[in-house]
Amino acid sequence: MADQPTPEATTENTPPEEAVSQKPSSGGVFSRRRLLGTAGATGLALGAAGGAAGYAAAPAADKAAPLTSLGADTVMFHGKHQPGITTALQARGHLVAFDLAAGAGRKEAAALLRRWSTTAQRLMAGQAAAQNDTDVARDAGPSSLTVTFGFGNSFFARTGLEKQRPVALDPLPDFSSDHLDKARSNGDLWVQIGADDALVAFHALRTLQKDAGSAARVRWQMNGFNRSPGATAQPMTARNLMGQIDGTRNPKPSESDFDRRIFVPAAGDPAWMANGSYAVVRRIRMLLDDWEKLSVKAQEDVVGRKKSTGAPLTGGTETTAMNLDKTDADGNLVVPLNAHARITRPDQNGGAAMLRRPFSFHDGFDTDGVPDAGLLFVCWQADPLRGFVPVQRKLDRGDALSTFIRHEASGLFAVPGGAAEGEYVGQRLLEA
Question: What is the DSSP string of 146-163?
């Protein structure tokens, strides 16, 4: 939908830097057509995540080739950056914030991050939890599981680390479009979970929640989803629940200035945030009943792009540069002044950029049948005061899309760099 990283857009499904696809060692891969044909011929529905046999598997002596390699895909836990930032979009996601328990401080927080890091490393490798595993993910592979940890503004006062709190973590300003529920905003600690299998993602969520023990309690938790990998005939930019192709001009790791825009430099301030990033999290309700009453042409004028292809209204393909000065036969701008894609362009916002990596959500219907659905917006940037804030301020002043969305929850979190071998996430802060 948007040309740039904005609170209403999703990320382009770009190849991850840290993902390593581990294909099954033997046998071929069934096509979707062949799989459906086999199921129809036998009258059985077969499942094999990551090459593991399902409960209705054939006898061991009659081993079949894995149906898919999706479950075998692995993302590394240790690295320069935490996983889940440049990782390609995952089919299932959970966002959860915790508050430290009364009386818990720096010591308890360090022990908790140590436990969480150990659990995340094991689960991302496709292993069971170290203690009391629930078996929810038994039979499944890693399924591109990622676990990402961050610290909220309030964490530093709770742990006596106020002097280490980054200036960039100052509370976000109020925006006129905000209708925020404080109970579902902010938090001492933030965890992002993503996977290509729903049971694998839930298993990680439940295990980390149990690991918190008496040190922290859940403040809020949200569930999201994206299109499953392989659902389209070829890789393409995602669509959101408004039906729009969304995230066309998301920054890509291959771009020369990507690291400068998304990650805190190695010599950054404070030192413990080296190679980290800042995540803005927003629960954005889409007013789908109102949106779906618009004609396709009216929807395209709101966004500034063709709904079918994502191409700018000025012509070309999805990646064609938008001609902001082009007019029609009557002298009217082809891309309206308040079109979302026009307002969010970097050259209209002093080069402000952020990497959008959200999930869609649907939390049911109210008594009138109105869907509680929209976007769990997550964006990454080296400095939210230069990334998210100026763009959102401009959207506040006249984005045509604002009529059809409502910002209901918000959070800002400092996400430190990745843990080295033998380290836990946040160790450089908590043990400095």
Answer: EEEEEEEHHHHHHTT-GG
